[in-house]
Amino acid sequence: MTAILILFGIFFAIRLYFLGISIKNEKKLIAKGATQIGAKHSKILAGAHIVYYFAAVLSAILLNVKFNLISAIGAIIVSASFVVLWFIVKQLGEIWTVKVYILPNHQINRSWLFTTFKHPNYFLNIIPELIGIALLCQAWWVLLLGLPIYGVILFIRIQQEEEAMKHLF
Asked: How far apart are CA 61 and CA 137, in angstroms?
């Protein structure tokens, strides 16, 4: 159990680190006249992320889960998802936030990552991250119930983002 809680704490701290980058970038975008799209939905998505994380760790605590191969695989998946997130943040620079902002002169990133994968932040970072957290904590009910619910919320976010940027394609 201790290893699970330590890794969970590390992963949560890493997520908070990236949130700090997002907040810093958000302030710069607002100063440049960016418009936020789907503010209410961004709050729902953030809430779902927090609930998912803590439902998984609470499940591990209540069931007294022991760190094993499944937990290790989960930790590796989360770690890999954060490497991808780091690369995405580097690629997008100051336009990367956890919210959707559109600048008046917004430019679409046409790097290999973004032309090869549609929405890499969602499909190569967030979804694997959530799967990995559930595996780390062996929170099967969170994976089976929480991931589909999160998926619906994420699907709505993707539609909002695509609608906001369709004029740029």
From this structure: 9
Neighbours of 55 (CB within 10 A): 18
Any domain includes 27: no
Domain count along the chain: 1
Question: What does pLDDT average to over the chain?
Answer: 95
Beta carbons of 60 and 137 less than 8 angstroms apart: yes
What are the tokens at 125? 């970072």
Residue at 24 is within a domain: no
Q: What is the CATH number of the domain that holds 111?
A: 1.20.120.1630
pLDDT in tens, 79-125: 999 999 999 999 999 999 999 999 998 888 888 988 898 899 999 99
Q: Which of 40, 163, 14 is nearest to 102 (CA)?
A: 163
What is the C-alpha to C-alpha distance for residues 85 and 72, in angstroms, rounded to an integer?
Answer: 20
In a domain, 76, yes or no: yes
| Domain of 145, in residue numbers | 2-19+32-168
> SS3 breakdown of the chain: % helix, strand, coil, rounded to 5?
80, 5, 20
Given a contact cutoff of 8 angstroms between Cβ atoms, the answer to whether 100 and 164 are in contact is: yes
DSSP-assigned letters across all residues of 83-112: HHHHHHHHHHGGG--SSEEE-TT-----SH
